[in-house]
Amino acid sequence: MLFQDLPPPEPTRDEVVVADYTLGDEIITVAASLEPVATSEASDSLTIFDRETIEALGDDRAADLLRLAPSVSLSETGPDSTQAQLRIRGAEASHTLLFIDGIKANDPAAGNEARFELLSFNSYDVVELVRGPQSALWGSEAIGGVVALRSSNPNYGGVQTNAFGEVGTDDFYRFSGSTQIDGSGDFHLNANIGFQGSGGIDSFGDDGERDGYRNATFRIAGAVDVADTITLLASGFAIDARSEFDGFDPFTFQRADTLDETDNRLGAGRVVARHDDGRLTIEGNASLLGSSNVNFLDDAEQNRTSAERLNLRALASYTFQTRQIDHRFSAAVEKEGENFSADDIAFGGFTAQDVDRSRTAFIAEYRLDAAAIILDAAIRHDDFSHFNDATSFSAGALVPLGDITLTANYGEGIAQPSFYDLFGFFPGSFVGNPDVTPERSRGGDIGIRYDADHFGLGLTFFTQNLTDEIVSTFDVITFLSSVENGDGKSQRRGIEAEASYSFGEALEISANYSHLDATDPELPGGSTLAEVRRPSHRGAIILTGRSGGFTYGGSLAIVSERFDTDFDVFPAERVTLGTYALASARIAYAVNDTIEISVRGSNLFDADYQDVIGYNTQGRAVFVGLRFTP
Questions:
Q1: What percent of the chain has pLDDT over 90?
Q2: What does the alpha-carbon distance between residue 491 and residue 466 come to, in Å, rounded to a whole number?
Q3: Domain segments of the chain: what residues?
């Protein structure tokens, strides 16, 4: 049942921002509905990494964790902190929508992409991924799916502080401090600060200079009950990172071992006022995000971009019951404005621009929970300031049959053009196209789940089409490149299989396998090409457990062959990147209630692999850590 006749359990009142990942004894999802629901009542295909799993695995980046989720392809242009693009179910890198503690965090100053390369372990306590088009709920960029990073609630009462440090291979280090306050249900606070960096490896070529990075992250989320039914919530984060990478030779325009660096800053804040009496919910929230990206070559500034996004939203939700059937209607109005500016030194300031755009959205969602079936449907209309409006629809059904559950979903997605697509300008090479329109996607999946006391299985079949894809063009007369909406449609279809087994606290094991068939629009003659950087097969295994004073975790990610394009030759050449397996493990021992020591290893098989043609990746690495909890 949806939380209906009884007042909602206390932890749910602040789940949207400082979310614990349980609703009573059930795991909840905040990305599959306008209001949090139990995962057992969500028809969507989703993966949640809870706090215990994240701490047991010990990964230092969100990218390493997300690589373990079904139908996720990760492409990095070199070592940690270089560009990391995430593709879900074969969608484009700009088709993943990212939330950090309820704040839309895609970077409008970097092509609307989610900056996964900037997300250190300090950015989250819980990671949630919903696969499939979600634009009816969340708007633009939610074509492949939604990734939600969130803080967790302290539920133990009182104050807990924590300090952690780790050092390892290639001059790696990370240090963090956190404070959690649980004020007996009336006040919650979760604050975290961390610093992370590495001397790095040579990104491109052999025996060149090392490309390292540094990253500082601050995150805070809190909630206070000001009355029996009214809660005020706030959250915010700030990321300051500097990364070295290998770019392009200024004379040959080919990739080379260069002295490129980028300075990235991304920060945001959000405030929420929420009334919830168990039947009627009224919420108003506002968030402001700012980003800045400055690029250097041998310490000389080349260009910079910056952007701001202001988002305002009002939501109302009403729950009632008829004939033992629970109903919930939710409606929201959202207003968003974005400003983008760019400037350069390399081109004498000719790329300078200062542009803005806005949109207004109207969203409605209905959920029905009966004994025999759970249904949900959502519709959203986006009124854009610079191109045609868009309407998106989604629907889902879940049928519980004892230990077996059947699911079906249909969803539509859109991705608005980036500021570069619309207005970008680089002398002699690129000019934007203000006439491009949003990309559009339609897709669906059907699935079956089996859940017993200690054992779970899941099988999902999905299909998705992308139309009006924004593609690059080249004018052989002016030698200028641009973009336009392409003809035809890209097709993605596949299978996701998942299994899990619990031996109790001592060992939990889960595994997943995904098959993907992703093709570009049909060529003359009817032939198609597989899309680049999308493996046909991928799989993952995760082990976690606890025994006595020991906590342990391990993972194995296997990625099959996939295609890429080598632009360093003319004409550009299609190449195959080889299969690889990445194994990681961590073991920690609690010396006492205050001190824990740990040893962690990544890429334990020392796989020599590339996610992007030509760019090197980190080999085997070992780390030693110490946690102090006074």
A1: 77
A2: 7
A3: 10-628
